[in-house]
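Weekly structure sync, notes
Attendees: PL (lead), two postdocs, one rotation student
Agenda item 3: pending single-chain targets
PL asked that the sequence for the first pending target be pasted directly into the notes so everyone works from the same version. It is reproduced below exactly as submitted, 311 residues in total.
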Amino acid sequence: MDLTPEFYQEEVRCGYRVSAKMKKIWAVELDLLDKFSQVCEKHGLRYFIGAGTLLGAARHQGFIPWDDDVDVILPREDYDRLWEIAADEFKEPYFFQTTLSENGFCRTHAQLRNSNTTGFIQEDADKNINRGIFLDVFPMDALPDEPKKQEALRRELDFYKKILDYEYNIPYGVLPAKGRLFYHLIHLFFKVVPYKAFFQHFNHKVLGKYSADHTTEKVADLSLAWRDCVHWKREWFTDFVYLPFENLQLRAPYRYQEVLTHQYGDYMRIPDDVTAPNGRCHGEVTFEPDIPYMEYFRNRSEKETKYAESH
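Predicted structure, written out during the meeting:
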């Protein structure tokens, strides 16, 4: 993506200093957003910028100055179609990362990565997966209207996510005795049931259980924790508008004001403490926008080996 030299310069936005390195990270993420939106437009896939990306577009016409990630969300049928076409549309250095496209990767949503960069959360630091800078891609699923069905779905989602976490994300050594028993049972279970088949069932029959019903009042991002703030009225997403995001024009829900008010309250208000995490779900992320992740981890391994040999 062509960006002006001025874009990469350190600057102060809303009283917050945005470093030159963060500008490089933003540039990679803008390129991911651009590539993603082009593929969706080409195939007629509905997508919307979401979470902090939507908030940034509405309040800052771009990145929230103290934010470092980008998010999009697609209705279930478009999200599933994206998985089908991704391998043909996202070529190097792009990689569409899912639990099905890469062994060892376990997320309940997808990520679009740039393999010529480094960007990873700490729990992925030692996993043999693509760890380039990423765009989070979420499914939007239907939420049943009946409270009893909602509670049953919440419990089912929690149970399946626990199984996935025990298989891929929770270290055995941190578990109490009861947790270690469950850990062993889960690993025995996956010796019998293919992991990818289990995930396919979870993705379509649990997350997407009600998505064939287009009459429910609400839709939701159910892939992460169960949160009322990301349970939205379906009518807010029946169309889209383009909002400016830095040098791009990206799709937002046509009633994005209602979406943001429901999710953040007075979303135009600048937080009192812009140095705080402010609800980021990723926590600490390691970024090296100029170094391919494979080179980064090769260099790290060599340094660790030399240190071990010298001590």
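Discussion points:
- The helical segments are 20-43, 51-60, 76-89, 147-168, 177-192, 195-207, 256-264, 293-310.
- The first strand starts at residue 11 and ends at 13.
Action: rotation student to compare against the earlier draft before next sync.
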